[in-house]
Amino acid sequence: MPEMIDMHCHIIPGVDDGARTKKDVRELLLMEYKSGVRHIVMTPHYRKGMFEPTEQLVKKRADYVRREIETLGIDMNGHVGCEYHANSEMVKEFTENKRFRMNGGKFVLVEFSSRHNFVQIRNWIYELVKAGFRPIIAHVERYHSVVKNGLDFIDELRDMGAYIQMNADSIIGEDGFMIKRFCKKVIKEEMLDFVGSDGHDLARRTPHIGKCYDKIEKMMGTDYADMIFISNPECIINNERF
Question: pTM of the prediction?
Fold first, then answer.
């Protein structure tokens, strides 16, 4: 089993709509480990007016997750990032505060919403790249404006300097046939850069990194699967461009 990296999950307890209890944290860690994950980038939401955990709280709770890893005796490393909901101040905030970046580097995980059209998404990506960041578009398959405009729009965003992330659940079909079909099209064109579990809890949104790796390996081969589950996310941890 390859030693994979989950670069998008909500396992830090009590800071967003993800893990809530000690049991949540322990069970999610064990699920990840058993599926082959050896590095986990903890990405709590930051969305103005909804999720605004302080930097101190995130650090404190992330340290708790790391202690749980040690208590469980599993070979896993925890890193801290952020899933930042797009707004007009994000370039300034990414510039001034490393807490909103992925492992403190230049990669930034940006979430959009259904109300954002393709012009807004494109303009924000342009501004982020211009400012020297490496924007990762979180769960791109969820945005109607992206799906509507199809693979050409994704290709345009990647040409601009954006990276594309999809959720494991979407790829394996947990979020419906239409989303699964769209994900398959993107993967077949080799436009996918990262897969994250987007794991939140023990019931509805559990991590399925291992199952998704198996599916992509069968679809595209081991080299491609290793690239998006191992070598690409290693660049996030090491703050290296690829």
Answer: 0.97
